Q: What sequence folds into this?
């Protein structure tokens, strides 16, 4: 699979990253290298092997369904840029 | 005769699939120990994980997984021995991480099925049964809430709901009308409440439906679908699907094309409208969440959960029909909620503590069903109560039904007992005693009363005897009045008829 410069721009847009043309070119080269690495891995015969979904072969530990957190709104909101009536305020978003 | 052939366009077929988000009834969130109680002050239940402070890690709630397993078992689905959480990436302020933790290619619940009873929404069609296939159900976290009221041109964000566990239940596109979609949604709604995994409160958003609607000529490939988002009542679901399907049919018949889109239902105007959606909005770039390990579910755990499952509504419904001889209609209503079924069974048990031969029990089951579906439901409705808040206990109702069954009280008397019980409490026997509602079944006393009435109304007697049988009601009325409503109606009718024709 090869990556073109349009793909780089698209991914940047989806990730909300502003990129100059120069930065995009640099990212293109870096990403293409990663794709090369993936291609190498995909060339290995993995027939009959269940893919791992995590780097460590262990399973998820579970937590009992118990409320352990207390209200720390004041503390958390002390670093928010704008709050009102207990709400975090953000630039208007209406779809 | 010349045979004229009309070329009639084949009918359109509507195809519907539903995605339902059920909020699981855990005490704490899916990935943290923050409370999920509804209606708290904004952000007081938004802990470090809910607001996505850097460095926090999710830890999966066992209670959420248990509820997912319970659901899977209830719809006969395969429970994945290993499932995986994935990140669904998109930007929105009520999703502070920039991704929602969900499941993608390895969901916890696989294919299952739900049997539904479809009541036609209009016309004189008959109700029928249908099996709707469930594609999958997966665990995910809910987002927060955006409040667009005016905060000086800004939007307020409440993250209390962020991280609330959801089970998203996806159906196959098996439904062919709004009636079928509504029947499926209602059955699912009653099932999740029945097995206790979701409170089903639609106003509070605990049960949210999205409908994928497309139309096609029968036998043709599936048409392009449009997704109606956030249907929060069954009535809106019906209206939205009917409008949307008609809109698609009109568009196609006028030579137009359907483009895949997400639409919202405007309940004031009763129409669906496409949301303005940006290009690439649906490129979620799912990938396995490195913060979470695969979820292992052992066969032993599945069996433990299975042991906690109550008798399911479908099995109960079938049993009511086969064992108690109830109609499918009655059985359907009685199994509409676990509370209703529980009440019915408790009332029937106190009415007949020892199961009598099938026939007798069937009659009593019918009596019990009639009162529950009739008087009790009507009164609950009128007072805006639900079954759990019913002021009359099943034992009280059973006690009263026993007195109807053994003819101690008439139906009219029973209604009075019922009213008194409802408002003042007390058991049936005490009320019957205090109000003197015991019906007169002494034939001597009834005969005496009838004789007096016949003697006092010679004109009406003559009318009756000349063939005006309508006057019969007049005599019944007088006799009931004279007995203060206590005469056994069947007996009274019999004696009256006998004496009048003499």
A:
């Amino acid at each position: 699979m090869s990556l073109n410069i349009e793909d780089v721009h698209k991914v940047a847009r989806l990730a909300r990253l502003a990129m100059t043309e120069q930065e995009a070119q640099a990212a293109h080269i870096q990403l293409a290298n990663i794709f090369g690495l993936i291609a190498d891995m995909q060339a290995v015969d993995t027939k009959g092997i269940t893919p791992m979904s995590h780097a460590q072969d262990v399973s998820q530990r579970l937590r009992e369904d118990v409320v352990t957190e207390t209200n720390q709104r004041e503390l958390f909101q002390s670093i928010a840029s704008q709050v009102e009536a207990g709400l975090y305020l953000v630039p208007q978003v209406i779809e | 005769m010349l045979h004229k052939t009309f070329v009639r366009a084949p009918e359109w077929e509507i195809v519907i699939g539903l995605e339902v988000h059920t909020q699981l009834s855990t005490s704490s969130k899916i990935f943290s120990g923050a409370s999920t109680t509804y209606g708290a002050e904004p952000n007081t239940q938004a802990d470090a994980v809910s607001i996505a402070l850097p460095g926090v890690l999710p830890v999966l709630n066992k209670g959420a997984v248990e509820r997912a397993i319970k659901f899977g078992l209830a719809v006969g689905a395969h429970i994945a021995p290993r499932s995986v959480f994935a990140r669904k990436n998109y930007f929105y302020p009520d999703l502070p991480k920039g991704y929602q933790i969900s499941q993608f290619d390895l969901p916890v619940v696989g294919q299952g099925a739900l049997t539904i009873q479809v009541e036609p929404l209009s016309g004189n069609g008959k109700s029928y049964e249908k099996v709707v296939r469930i594609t999958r159900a997966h665990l995910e976290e809910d987002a927060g809430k955006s409040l667009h009221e005016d905060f000086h041109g800004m939007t307020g964000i409440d993250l209390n709901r962020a991280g609330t566990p959801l089970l998203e239940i996806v159906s196959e596109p098996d439904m062919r009308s709004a009636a079928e979609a509504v029947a499926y949604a209602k059955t699912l709604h009653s099932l999740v409440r029945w097995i206790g995994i979701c409170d089903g409160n639609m106003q509070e958003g605990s049960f949210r439906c999205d409908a994928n609607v497309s139309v096609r000529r029968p036998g043709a490939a599936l048409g392009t679908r449009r997704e109606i988002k956030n249907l929060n009542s069954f009535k809106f679901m019906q209206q939205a699907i009917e409008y949307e399907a008609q809109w698609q049919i009109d568009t196609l018949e006028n030579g137009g094309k359907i483009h895949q889109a997400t639409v919202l239902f405007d309940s004031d105007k009763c129409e669906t409208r496409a949301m303005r959606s940006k290009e690439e909005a649906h490129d979620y770039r799912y990938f396995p969440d490195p913060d979470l390990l695969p979820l292992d579910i052992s066969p032993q755990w599945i069996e433990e959960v299975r042991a906690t499952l109550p008798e399911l509504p479908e099995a109960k419904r079938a049993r009511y029909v086969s064992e108690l001889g109830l109609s499918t209609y009655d059985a359907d209503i009685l199994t509409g909620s676990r509370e209703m079924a529980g009440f019915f069974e408790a009332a029937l048990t106190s009415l007949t503590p020892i199961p009598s031969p099938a026939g007798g029990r069937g009659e009593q089951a019918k009596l019990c069903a009639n009162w529950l579906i009739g008087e009790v439901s009507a009164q609950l409705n009128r007072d805006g109560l639900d079954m759990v808040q019913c002021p009359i206990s099943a034992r009280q109702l059973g006690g009263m039904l026993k007195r109807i069954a053994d003819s101690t009280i008439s139906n009219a008397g029973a209604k009075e007992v019922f009213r008194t019980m409802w408002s003042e409490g007390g058991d049936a026997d005490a009320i019957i005693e205090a109000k003197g509602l015991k019906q007169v079944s002494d034939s001597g006393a009834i005969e005496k009363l009838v004789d007096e009435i016949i003697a006092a109304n010679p004109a009406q007697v003559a009318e009756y005897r000349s063939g005006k049988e309508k006057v019969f009601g007049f005599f019944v009325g007088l006799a009931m009045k004279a007995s203060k409503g206590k005469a056994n109606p069947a007996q009274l009718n019999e004696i009256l008829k006998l004496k009048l024709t003499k």
Q: What stands out?
A: The two ends of chain A are 35 Å apart (CA to CA).
